[in-house]
Amino acid sequence: MSTRAPGQFKITPVTVTTDGYEYPTFRVSGWLNGQRIRKNFKSRAEAQGEKQRLEVAAANAEGDIQAVNTRLTSSQVAQAESAFARLGDHSMPLAVEWFLANYRPPTLEKTLETAVVDFLAARETEVSAPVYADYRKLLRALLKAFPLRDCHTLSTGDLEAFLPLRGPAKKTWNNGRTYLHSFFEFCRDDRRRWVTTNPAKALKQHSIPRGIPHTESAAVLAEMFSFLEQYSGPARCKYAPGYLVPYFALATFAGLRPSARDGELFKIASLKDKSRIIDLGLGVIRITPEIAKTSDLRQVTIQPNLAAWLARYPLDKFPLMVPSMAEHIAPVRQRFKLVNDGLRHTFVSAHVAKFKSIGGTALEAGNSERIIRKHYLNSMTEAEAGAFWGIVPKA
After folding, report:
1. What is the spatial distance between Cα 174 and Cα 55, in angstroms, rounded to a whole number?
2. pTM of this prediction?
3. Rounded CA separation 367/369 (Å)
């Protein structure tokens, strides 16, 4: 009997004679469960495959493996062993009962591509153009990452692997999580039931501390308006000097959101009759729900310096916005190093510093009193606020 240790196998080239002909073969030999193994194969690759199979079988025989009679297939046995391993100390029958009581299969296997098309069609008229563009960009990337997949096959793990591709910033992650959550809630709606659970719900939401908002100094703003009074636009597209003053004055001294794509100033500029919004007679600016970012009604008092700017550069003679507005304001922003929402932050800080009313500032800015108290109160001195509200056209 061979002295070779159980579970160890070797491959030996041998020649086999059949019907007077000699054939080169590769023999796998060894011992398994007390039985001698000798098998011949035409190629070394086949022999190597059998050797590996036998070694696995021998390793299992040496472990805690029990032979039982079962009606399960080998694949089902493997799944059962995997399930027991994942459950740990939990009861398998209890887990099965919970699954049967709570699982609801999708009513329709919907491809991810079709679901994205339906979702974007539904959202196009419900959200602003920039938000819609963000949805479309993200979901197209999702389709590229998971082609030919059905909605219900995507897991939280899939989405966790996908989101870092959108950028490492916490805010980028949070925005992506929000958009994905909205998309899968659309798929989970009772009218569709393309998924049973929202895989984006379990994604981590990063906490982003918010510091003191950036404000522009009164000296820089005074210099900016002095420049704007002389500025007539890029070389290829000239306007009357001061044509950008109304836009910057309303953004600075009324805190109106200045986005040239979908901001409050953009929406006011698209109106035929702006006087019902910017009421110089009563000295107020009425931001209606259709204009406001938060869809709330608010009213901003036109302070004396803003009234002076609008009197010198009236909206019936100077446009609030011109075609390709972003190209016109970009040189000004770059020249004076303006940050996003910096003018609005400056307005809110100067308002609460001068008028000493958290509630009044919250009403005019469209923020909550909690936000004003936490982020804007005492962020500007009374003297700096006085200089801000004293910026007027040159005599």
Report:
1. 50
2. 0.57
3. 7
